[in-house]
Predict the structure.
Amino acid sequence: MAPQLSDAELNPQAKQLPLAGLGQLLDLKVEFGEEWIRGVTHDSRRVQAGNLYAALPGANFHGAQFVVEAVANGAHAVLTDEHGQELINQLASENEQVVGVPTLVVDDPRAALGPVAAWVYDYPARALQMIGITGTDGKTTTAMLIEGALNSLGVLTGLVGTIATRVGDWSAASARTTPEASDLQALLAFMRDQGAKAAVLEVSSHALELGRADSIVFDLAVFTNLGLDHLDFHGTQENYFAAKSKLFSIERAKRAVICADDQWGVKLLEQVTIPAEAYVVEGLQETKWSRENAPTWTANDLSLTPNGLKFKLYDPEEEIDVASPFLAGTGLFGRYNVANATAAIAVTSWVLANLEDVSFVDPTTVYVATKAVSSSQGAPGRMESVDAGQDFTMLVDYAHTPDAVASALGSVGELAAATGGRVICVLGCGGDRDPSKRPTMGQLAVQLADIAIITDDNPRSEDPADIRSQIMDGIEALSQNYRATIVEEIGDRRAAIAHAVSLAQTGDVVVALGKGHEQGQEVNGEILPMDDRELLAKSAKTGD
């Protein structure tokens, strides 16, 4: 296991910089004399000597409320807004340490943080081939396929995503998909200083709305799809799409790779103003493509097996078959994973072609990229197989949106048909998240599985019984006009998974959806140990 980054390493110390230079960057008419900073963070607990502390407004607290702790830890200056300045003035009247600490006041410190952090760390993104991936589903798998492929080819590549943040032998657990701008720029600086030549980032819609990736111009921006998710934050699907679309502006990206399997990808292709390539997968397209407007990358001739998948990748410009077989033996399968792999091949090919100091004996860059992606393991908890010696298949998947559930169960259904078995699905929905998707997810479970067991996911602060009730309401609205012959509600996820395994027979496929790689269950602010993979394996071995 790779060693973990400490907080200090996540907040590397930049070279000493004059505070006057930062004032000039922000166009502030203030004299700062000999004051200087090195490093920047928005977390008062992680301030180091000489840091700029970014006191940001938040949903529940204002960062300025913690300025005493920040100054005690060595902050040399504070970036905040007018309200933050008022709070700091109040604290200064009670604490002499705060008196005289330079304060840079701007209208929107969160929007300023990206450019400020980029300046402090000497614009690290400019030294890397930057790949940004956005979409509702598939970001993590696509990012990890690209990272694994490039690293296997000797191109040291950093990863910032939902599951992990890492470069080389160093890794850190990810608190969120896309870190706050100060952390993100510090991470890119760390990757640059470790000798990385590329970085792959999952870019969430929240990050784009909140400016976390500002001051980064991605060499390639990738769009995987758009499903029903995060409407509790964005309000409407159109707003959600608009947030994702921000990554594909000329201010944020140089080129695009866009999945055109759904209407949103087609819409993005129609409106994007930067050079763009499209990719589609046989059997997934909602839009018909003619020979005249054929996408750059087309995956077809799919073959799904219990051990993986095979497909052919077609580039209409060169008219060559560049990928067959693919991923056999890795346990990664499903039509949507063909889409993820196709994007990874397109991106890997582009990066290899644009790194001048990388050379290969094989003259066909796409072929080299295909072989490299084929050897990459993808993301843990994404259609991950669990083998405990059973005579049926067990899988875990992170699917937690209607589209992801439909895709996962559709692929599982193909596998079950090949093995002559049934689909047994364990499904829950997360609390404190968009509740509108819960009835639909329940309906998909009973429409695409033979046995559906409704259970708890991460209830967070909500009553788990209420969440399950909303799922069951969706199922009951179908008036039993569905595929599943057994539908049960078992709140305890451990018991639900054990019961699903107890029902499995030879050739069946048991799939636990929603939590994927997670190793805990969040209940009322507490993370309780729980790993679906371990629960499946234990149940299969003991028969409990």
